[in-house]
Write a structure and sequence with these properties.
The chain has 3 helices and 8 strands. By secondary structure, the protein is of the alpha+beta class.
């Protein structure tokens, strides 16, 4: 930390800028089906999932990848936060995904593959 006395002689601590926290994905969308809730939310093949509802990498490590099914079922018919990194983008995108029955399989209409 650096002390800056300024032009009036008043001391103020100036902190060096810190880097944003590093967040790692726990899944990647390797299939998104047309007409599905995932497609309607804007999920694209290749999106890397940082968070889905209350789940992030730490929660998946504690609870296992199967925790996704419970989280999705608990939000059926209600929007849930989906945080993804797309392509080479540096900033995550926040989507709202509403799990629901649709003509295809599951409540999301996408396949999420574990990363790691």
């Amino acid at each position: 930390m650096e002390v800056d006395r300024g032009s009036w002689g008043v001391a103020a601590a100036v902190a060096a800028p810190s880097a944003p926290p590093v967040v790692h994905p726990f899944a990647v969308a390797d299939e998104v089906f047309e007409g599905s809730p995932a497609a309607a939310a804007g999920v694209e093949v290749g999106d890397r999932v940082l968070a889905l509802g209350r789940l992030d990498l730490d929660a998946i490590r504690r609870e296992g990848f199967a925790a996704l099914a419970g989280e999705v079922a608990a939000h059926e018919g209600r929007g849930m936060r989906l945080l993804v990194i797309r392509g080479g983008e540096a900033c995550p995108r926040e989507l709202t995904l509403t799990p629901r029955a649709w003509p295809g399989r599951g409540l999301l209409g996408c396949h999420l593959r574990p990363v790691g």
